[in-house]
């Protein structure tokens, strides 16, 4: 039982400011021993932090990882988003439910296990996957899942994450010499737990060079000249974005968006876990360039291993003098801190992320003002993602021309592609911008799985488009995909075979959007619900052909009227799926049409 003294101790350790609310709640949840935040504890916390009870209640109810209802010593979260769905997540639910005698949302009689559905865990190359508290398990099957669960019977809950076999970052990088390794060049060479190892492999040489040879304006100029564009999905020129941050002595922030929640994406997790110092050096260079003195890495709450390794790396960098006061003997001060997420996909949107950092519900903000003018705590802030910031040390050390030596004329450099689905080899691939889907499947994926033939690929995650066989040679760069009516997004390449039902797949995508809508703006809140409802009608063979156009029209309205990218995104998977497989939707209008995949999904998640 959590006492008032426990609450006071946690507040004293974390700080009384509202921005520390997420970390305080995580500590209290861990102290509970049953993954619960009792209402009486929250009310006491509100009093001690001098916050309204409604602020605490509203915060905890927004983030799916928190609960005020007693759960269990071990929470089993089974991923059901795209890659895991395609690779058989429904079967995993069946096995767990039969083995433990509970369904999703229920707790075993002995209080040991609680089962939940969840969205992407960032283990897409090892799908289907689950998380038990913070332990990650992938490549699940009927033969291994019972053994995994039984192993927890004698354990005590731990806050530290463990990984099952084959999930570590080095293991999920496809071992193929035809890659162009730049960001991944030192993965496997560098010990992620040792700053000395990073230094022996050229670490912080770029920062030393910048401080000795370049002014902040020159660093921004180098990044501009490199042609680096944001790797989080929007593809905005990074150097231009940095130049938007106003000059002057006011407080400014560097924010790293590590809330990698897009289904099918796992690249940032690998970078954080296998070479965290490279990200820290990139943030230091960004801070120097824009005149920021503080940096924050907002990491999704499910990425416990990433959080642990980043914190260790930050502590070591601080001890070496690479963070803190008068870095490299200059008058420049810069430090970095980790902030955690709580399970909300919408916090991948930069203004939602900033609200979450401030201890608020992760609602998107109306823009303008943009974060460059008024971001964290109302002060100028620059937000880039992990892959983007990790690219900066290479660019500064080796020059803009080196970076532009691969890629396309408008999309320079390499890209990390996250390959998952029905191919023989899944994992992370680093290639020059503009690699094709055919290359991904044949050269790096080892071809389609035995007995499978290619049907389509979802590129860019749930918010991305569907590529049919006619686009297998499309260059997968930022501009070419947009011209083709799809999007590169975060670099997801989810390959589906002939057994994948187009209706069932789209139902899964639209279920994701309804679940993740924050509910702040009406077009998204009602629109995602309506789209999901219509998709269920097709899966149940109760739809009419006119419902196809209803989905398209609804999604188009959402794109025009929604506040943020979440509500603006469903149009892309809907239009591209229907463009490629309209006849499948027409067939699902026949009450007598047989579709085992839709029936299995309906039974698992809806009936």
Automatic annotation (TrEMBL):
Gene3D superfamilies: 3.10.20.600, 6.10.250.1450, Glutaredoxin, NADH-quinone oxidoreductase subunit E, NADH-ubiquinone oxidoreductase 51kDa subunit, NADH-ubiquinone oxidoreductase 51kDa subunit, iron-sulphur binding domain. It comes from the Bacteria. Its EC number is 1.6.5.3. Keywords: 4Fe-4S, Iron, Iron-sulfur, Metal-binding, Oxidoreductase. One of its GO terms (molecular function) is oxidoreductase activity. CDD domains: TRX_Fd_NuoE. It is an enzyme of class 1 (oxidoreductase). Residues 503-548 form the NADH-ubiquinone oxidoreductase 51kDa subunit iron-sulphur binding domain. Pfam families: 2Fe-2S_thioredx, Complex1_51K, NADH_4Fe-4S. Belongs to the complex I 51 kDa subunit family. This is NADH-quinone oxidoreductase chain F. It comes from Syntrophus aciditrophicus (strain SB).
């Amino acid at each position: 039982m959590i006492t008032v003294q426990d609450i006071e101790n946690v507040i004293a350790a974390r700080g009384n400011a509202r921005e520390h609310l997420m970390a305080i709640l995580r500590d209290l949840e861990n102290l509970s021993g049953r993954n619960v935040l009792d209402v009486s504890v929250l009310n006491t916390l509100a009093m001690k932090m001098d916050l309204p009870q409604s602020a605490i209640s509203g915060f905890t109810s927004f983030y799916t990882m928190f609960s005020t209802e007693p759960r269990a010593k071990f929470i089993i979260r089974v991923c059901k988003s795209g890659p895991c769905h395609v690779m058989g997540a429904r079967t995993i639910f069946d096995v767990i439910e039969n083995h433990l005698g509970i369904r999703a949302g229920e707790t075993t009689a002995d209080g040991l296990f609680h089962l939940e559905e969840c969205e992407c865990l960032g283990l897409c190359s090892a799908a289907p996957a689950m998380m038990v508290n913070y332990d990650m398990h992938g490549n699940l099957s009927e033969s291994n899942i019972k053994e995994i669960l039984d192993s927890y019977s004698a354990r005590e809950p731990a806050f530290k994450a463990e990984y099952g076999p084959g999930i570590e970052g080095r293991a999920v990088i496809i071992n193929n010499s035809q890659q162009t390794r730049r960001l991944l060049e030192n993965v496997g060479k560098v010990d992620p737990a040792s700053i000395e190892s990073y230094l022996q492999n050229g670490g912080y040489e770029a920062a030393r060079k910048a401080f000795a040879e370049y002014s902040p304006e020159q660093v921004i100029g180098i990044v501009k000249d490199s042609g680096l564009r944001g790797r989080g999905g929007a593809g905005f020129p990074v150097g231009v974005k940095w130049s938007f941050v106003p000059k002057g002595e006011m407080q400014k922030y560097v924010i790293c968006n590590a809330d990698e929640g897009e289904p099918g994406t796992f690249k940032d997790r690998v970078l954080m876990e296998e070479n965290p110092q490279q990200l820290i050096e990139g943030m230091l260079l960004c801070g120097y360039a824009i005149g920021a003195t503080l940096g924050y890495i907002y990491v999704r709450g499910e990425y416990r291993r990433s959080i642990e390794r980043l914190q260790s790396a930050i502590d070591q960098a601080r001890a070496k003098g690479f963070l803190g006061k008068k870095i490299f003997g200059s008058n420049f001060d810069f430090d970095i801190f980790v902030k955690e997420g709580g399970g909300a996909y919408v916090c991948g949107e930069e203004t939602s992320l900033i609200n979450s950092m401030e201890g608020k519900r992760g609602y998107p903000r109306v823009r303008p003002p943009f974060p460059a003018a008024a971001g964290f705590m109302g002060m100028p802030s620059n937000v880039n993602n992990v892959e983007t910031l990790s690219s900066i040390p290479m660019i500064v050390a080796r020059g803009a021309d080196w970076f532009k030596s691969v890629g396309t004329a408008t999309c320079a450099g390499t890209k990390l592609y996250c390959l998952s689905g029905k191919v023989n080899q899944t994992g992370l691939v680093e290639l020059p911008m503009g690699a094709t889907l055919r290359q991904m499947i044949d050269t790096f994926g080892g071809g389609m799985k035995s007995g499978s033939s290619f049907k389509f690929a979802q590129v860019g995650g749930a918010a991305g488009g569907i590529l049919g066989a006619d686009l297998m040679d499309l260059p997968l760069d930022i501009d070419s995909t947009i011209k083709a009516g799809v999007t590169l997004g975060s670099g997801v390449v989810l390959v589906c075979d002939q057994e994948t039902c187009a209706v069932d797949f789209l139902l899964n995508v639209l279920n994701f959007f309804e679940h993740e809508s924050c509910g702040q703006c009406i077009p998204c809140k009602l629109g995602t619900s309506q789209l999901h409802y219509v998709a269920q009608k097709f899966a149940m063979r109760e739809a009419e052909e006119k419902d196809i156009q209803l989905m398209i029209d609804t999604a188009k309205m959402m794109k025009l009227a929604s506040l943020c990218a979440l509500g603006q995104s469903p149009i892309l998977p809907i239009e591209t799926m229907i463009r490629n497989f309209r006849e499948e939707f027409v067939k699902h209008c026949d009450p007598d049409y047989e579709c085992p995949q839709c029936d299995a999904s309906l039974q698992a998640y809806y009936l």
